[in-house]
């Protein structure tokens, strides 16, 4: 038997929780569906608004206040410190599973100034639920989620529930996680997680911020985070880093073992207007969208040195 989470909205009202018993349970999906190319994926993240301010290179998300909005806007991205001199620059990156990479690129591409954000999938191995959900870092953090309407309720000290995004008929409500300076959003399907499953996500997803500002996630059973190379419904669900976006050029780095055979282009890049391209750099899939010359140069000139989790110093 499952319990649906039905609550009253409104930031200043007393929350009411109605426990509705549902006679029919969720149909179990085969475990192999986690890496299948078919199925019904979770809704894509809502389209990001265009950038309204220039990012800085401070190595941390930069506050931005939006006039007339009760939710202050904080840029939910990291601007890593560049190293190098002359015509070449390097940035050190950490993926949400703890693996690392160093990007080397021409200085005039200025990739560090685009901002870096994590993304990863997770699966709740309970009640026959084997379909992964995506955790994404909205560029404007809580303020971006708050555009949907007032917060519905708080599940844990660092986890809140918000209304479904407007204009996304297939989407459900949004779980927003807070880990230090970072905000991660899980946008559910319309007929999605039960109250107990939301609580399981809230209680078992853990995050820590590294000394250089990156977010590394872990999970306790029954929650399992997707491994590098995981694909579901033609969408990568393993650990990723997004560089840029927010109406500008976008690079998606996805660690993928046997990259040439297993990699898929993320829909965020594949369906984006304009030019796009992708290639493997060792065990990292590099997908890029933007103006033609930018796309060409990233594909041809950016180098990636990848260190899997647990390997290296």
Topology overview:
Layout: E1 2-7, E2 17-22, E3 63-64, E4 73-74, E5 88-94, E6 100-106, E7 116-124, E8 133-136, H1 141-146, E9 153-156, E10 159-162, E11 171-179, E12 182-189, H2 195-204, E13 205-209, E14 215-219, E15 223-225, E16 231-232, E17 235-236, E18 240-244, E19 250-255, H3 259-262, H4 267-270, E20 275-281, E21 284-290, H5 292-301, E22 303-307
Antiparallel strand pairs: 1-2, 3-4, 5-6, 6-22, 7-8, 7-15, 7-18, 9-10, 10-11, 11-12, 13-14, 16-17, 18-19, 19-21, 20-21
Helix coverage percent? 10-25%
In quaternary terms, these chains amount to single chain
Instruction: Tell me the major beta sheet.
Output: 7 strands, antiparallel
- Counted by DSSP, the helix tally is 5
Distance between the termini: 48 Å
Mean pLDDT: 82
User: What is the succession of H and E elements?
Assistant: EEEEEEEEHEEEEHEEEEEEEHHEEHE
Tertiary shape? globular
SSE-based structural type: mainly beta
Question: Which range does the strand content fall in?
Answer: 35-45%
The poorly predicted ranges are: 1-39, 46-70
- Counted up, domains total 1
Radius of gyration: 19 Å
């Amino acid at each position: 038997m499952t319990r649906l989470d039905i609550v009253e909205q409104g930031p200043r009202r007393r929350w009411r929780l109605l426990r509705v018993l549902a006679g029919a349970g969720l149909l179990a999906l085969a475990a192999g569906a986690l890496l299948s190319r078919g199925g019904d994926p979770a809704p894509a993240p809502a389209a990001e608004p265009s950038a309204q301010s220039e990012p800085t290179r401070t190595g941390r998300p930069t506050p931005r206040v939006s006039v007339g909005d009760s939710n202050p806007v904080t840029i939910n991205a990291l601007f890593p410190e560049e190293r190098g001199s002359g015509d070449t620059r390097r940035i050190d990156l950490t993926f949400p599973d703890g693996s690392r990479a160093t990007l080397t690129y021409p200085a005039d591409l200025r990739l560090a100034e685009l901002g870096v954000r994590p993304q990863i999938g997770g699966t709740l191995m309970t009640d026959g639920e084997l379909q992964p959900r995506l955790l994404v870092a909205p560029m404007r953090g809580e303020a971006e989620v708050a555009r949907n309407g007032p917060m519905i309720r708080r599940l844990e000290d660092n986890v809140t529930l918000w209304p479904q995004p407007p204009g996304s008929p297939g989407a459900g409500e949004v779980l927003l996680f807070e880990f230090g300076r970072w905000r991660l959003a899980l946008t559910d399907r319309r007929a999605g997680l039960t109250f107990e499953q939301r609580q399981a996500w809230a209680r078992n997803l853990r995050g820590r911020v590294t000394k250089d500002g990156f977010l590394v996630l872990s999970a306790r059973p029954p929650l399992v985070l997707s491994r590098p190379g995981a694909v579901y419904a033609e969408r990568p669900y393993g650990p990723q880093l997004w560089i840029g976006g927010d109406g500008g050029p976008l690079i998606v780095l996805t660690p993928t073992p046997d990259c040439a055979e297993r990699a898929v282009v993320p829909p965020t890049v594949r369906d984006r207007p304009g030019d796009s391209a992708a290639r493997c750099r060792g065990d990292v899939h590099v997908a890029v969208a933007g103006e033609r010359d930018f796309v060409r140069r990233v594909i041809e000139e950016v180098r990636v040195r990848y260190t899997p989790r647990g390997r290296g110093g």
